[in-house]
Amino acid sequence: MKAIVYTQHGLPIDDPQALLDTELPMPLAGPHDLLVEVRAVSVNPVDTKIRLGVAVNEPRVLGWDASGIVRAVGANVTLFAPGDEVFYAGSIVRPGSNSQFQAVDERIVGRKPANLGFAEAAALPLTSITAWELLFDRLRVPEGGGEGKSLLIVGAGGGVGSILTQLARRLTKLTVIGSASRDATREWVTRLGAHHTVDHTRPMQPQLEELGFANVDIVISLTHTDRHYQDIIEALAPQGQLALIDDPATLDAVPLKRKSISLHWELMFTRSMFETADMVCQHELLNRVAAMIEDGALTTTLGEHFGTINAANLRRAHALIESNRAIGKIVLEDF
């Protein structure tokens, strides 16, 4: 089968060897696995981080967002059947989705929204899982709750921010403030449901005060947390909550003590990596997202379509992700 791999970590993305087209054997489905014919993928910052930072001794397939068609199922599969259309993010400890076929555990797969094409659906899984787990599992915001409280999303125009803004607006009563630095991004975040926007390239606390917020109750930091850390601490109310998903080189939690700020970290791969007892929650939440898409309560966060799934187009996508100028998700479709 066709696949795109990297064989040497750390290469700049303008090097043709950074990602390569190749042929690999067809994967085999384990007892709980679906064998999926991949029809579309999207690209996330995790793809670029692993390509740059994780050494390999054999070709590695990246990609943790896909939609496709189930072609075969393992002996213990109960949730899907051949022919089903699905979407999923996969597991970081297994081969990724940048290949014609992929074996993926059924417990982290959802049914593809019926009203979306494969490209639109592929933009959603990783970010939807991350956003859902941030709000409802890590921060314990109750669905329908949060009235009278405020949420600041730092980096609201990116992939996770785009779906998080929608989920917070549709499923909670939080006042949603999205940070965005460009006119196009501010328009995007507002269209997705943010009540207000601020510019994270300038001190955010004075901007929040201009909007009428002495402090905010929750901050979800999606990018450059180390750069914004002091600003975030200033903006948070006493006994507030801070959640993050990125990888600052260091994070000194001591400054949080004075305000009794709680710290929460989200990695959507934790459930699949450790095969936790509640791993099937990701199947269930993806089905909830699919239903909300079909009802018109959520919209795909596809930002740009980069064409066919091949090494050249994936290098372009990685370059845009690394520029920190992507709006929404970058999607590729078919081989």
UniProtKB/TrEMBL annotation:
One of its GO terms (molecular function) is oxidoreductase activity. The keyword Membrane does not apply. Transmembrane segments: none annotated. Keywords: Cytoplasm, Metal-binding, NADP, Oxidoreductase, RNA-binding, Zinc. The keyword Cytoplasm applies. Pfam families: ADH_N, ADH_zinc_N_2. InterPro entries: ADH-like_N, ADH_Zn_typ-1, ER, GroES-like_sf, NAD(P)-bd_dom_sf, Quin_OxRdtase/zeta-crystal_CS, Zinc-ADH_QOR/CCCR. It is found in: Cytoplasm. SMART domains: PKS_ER. PANTHER family: QUINONE OXIDOREDUCTASE. This is Zinc-type alcohol dehydrogenase-like protein. It comes from Massilia timonae CCUG 45783.
